[in-house]
Amino acid sequence: MERIVIEGTPKTPTISFDMASGHLEIRGRSIPENSIEFYKPLVEHLEKYASKPQANTNVNIQLEYFNTSSSKCILDVFKKLEAIHKGGSAIVINWYYEQDDEDMLEAGEDYQAIINIPFKMVEVAE
């Protein structure tokens, strides 16, 4: 199985997805010029992964900020994960937010309300 790693920049998050271990991590800032193009490789890898997912998939999201177009792309990623989850693979999304960042906590709760996958809200010190 493949692995995708996209190194982060000041405008884009670091994305690491190891299909062999079922571990996906997105962290940093997500304000790319073209969110759809930026997230496209990850969405394509998730489509491949969906055909033969691991029994357990662990997703860690630790974003300090994301813009509106990124939020749509993140939702698309979650919808791919939801389809895998409905197929019988166990998925847990760990949504990390800083102690005083109520906006990021609310964003995680909003996704949790839309997507039918277990979410864990994980508070981290600043």
User: What is the CA–CA distance across the termini?
Assistant: 35 Å
Structural Rg: 14 Å
Beta-strand percentage?
Answer: 25-35%
User: Which word captures the global form?
Assistant: globular
Helix fraction, binned, reads 25-40%
- Average pLDDT over all residues: 95
Compute the number of strand runs.
6
Indicate the CATH class: Alpha Beta
CATH topology: Transcription Regulator spoIIAA
Q: Tell me about the largest β-sheet.
A: 6 strands, mixed
Elements, N to C (H/E): EEEHEHEHE
Notable traits:
single chain, six-stranded mixed beta sheet, alpha/beta, 126 residues, 3 helices, Transcription Regulator spoIIAA
What can be said about this structure in brief?
With 126 residues, this protein is of the alpha/beta class. The protein is built from 3 helices and 6 strands. The protein has helices spanning 35-51, 68-86, 102-114; strands spanning 3-6, 14-18, 23-30, 56-66, 90-98, 119-124.
